[in-house]
Amino acid sequence: MAVFLGIDIGTSGTKTLAMRDDGVILASATVEYPLYSPKPGWSEQQPADWWDASVKSVRKVMKAAKLKAADVGGIGLSGQMHGSVFLDKAGKVIRPALLWNDQRTVAECAEIERLAGGRKRLIKMVANPALTGFTAPKILWLRNNEKKNFDRTVQVLLPKDYVRYEMTGEFATEVSDASGTLLLDVVKRKWSSNLLSKLDLDSSLLPKVYESEDVTGGLTAAAAKAMGLNAGTPVVGGGGDQAASAIGNGIVRRGVVSATMGTSGVVFAHSDEVQVDPEGRLHTFCHAVRGKWHVMGCVLSAGGSLQWFRNQLCQDEIAQAKRKKIDPYELITRQAAEAPVGSEGLFFLPYLTGERTPYADPNARGSWVGLSLRHGKGHLARAVMEGATYAMRDSLEIARGMDIPVKEVRLSGGGARSEFWRQMQADIYGQQVVTINAEEGPAYGVALLAAAGTGAYRDVVQACKATISVVTRTKPGSRERKAYNAAYPIYQQLYQSLKSDFADIQALL
User: Fold this and answer.
1) Does domain 3-239 have CATH number 3.20.20.150?
2) Are 422 and 428 in contact (CB under 8 A)?
3) Which one of the listed residues 8, 71, 241, 427 is annotated catalytic?
4) In terms of pLDDT, which residue wins out, 461 or 416?
């Protein structure tokens, strides 16, 4: 029996799992670490924390599953996308890493568009517009604001690829994560020499690019000793967290789409060819499936909006849930279910941290619109859930408009665990939604990539087919679907009506 490890370097912690070659999870463990915000809008972490957490979580999993080093046939890596680790010529970290949710690079995004010859030309070069979260503007920010640190930099790595460097001594990345740097020619699946030239960046700053199943190196003796594994254990390319999560959900063929309702919400569609939204509302990235691509929309505060509602307005429910030893969300959902479809004309815009898809507007703000004396806490809760789901539908509608088939929507995240929210998603999306037997996310996806890349399966498509199956199906109700179809255009118009007001509010701060 071969066992494969999946390591996911997340924003709040690193999760490692051990997967048997038939897809069964033997054990998992998570080790958390801090996030730093030295200035408003800044978000940083220490790369050493990622490596330390990787070592500790691997050791915990090996102990929990009672595994020997020889049992491990391969390792896959996933992690938060778009971050930047700056290394000097000795391979040492120069400064804390800038993360995906860091907002300091507004000026650099404008600089990139200008140097590229405009937004349309930039999208033509790298399939995406410049966004503050991406890696390229972070590199330019370092050059513009910390020149001494930039001059010392000889290598820039993404978060998971820094952990790979500590594991293997190799500077390497793979196509799905590299797509989120804004420096990859997504069509040709290699670094964009054209854009690098326009930005006056040397290609030597960037690591070698592999396909996600490819073996990128083996554990060094030092890394193997630290982790309790064998030297030479192969490490495959892996994937950025969204592509890896899609692998873990079996999104590896045309027509199958995932809707992940976590803190953020992600709609992810497999594509056999490059399909680009000319307006840049959806990301077009290389998939972790060899020679394939995907389009992706991101709602920054999807489940996060309900989490905010719980934390700020549901202290009574939290206390009651503690007494009853149940999840507070169970009580909140019961209240939401008591309100009618459409929350009696109450809408919630889930823009608590700005929005990415479809507006890419950091000034957007969360709002309830339509409040009246009729509305109680149940209405407020239901409107939050409906608003987050409308926001997810925005991405689905754009994908449909690009002629990307949406034949099956696979749900995951907190929104998939609630029967009530599953039904709401089916009603708002206007089609059947399903859940699957795998709930481990990116770590599971890269364990499957490790199994495929080391020969346990022919490829990752076969690995997914052998290990992932549908377990629940939820069909939309005809009355509810009709009601939501009538309300959805009003939801869409509210942002347009408030867009300039959001900008004016930001100017006051």
Assistant:
1) no
2) no
3) 241
4) 461
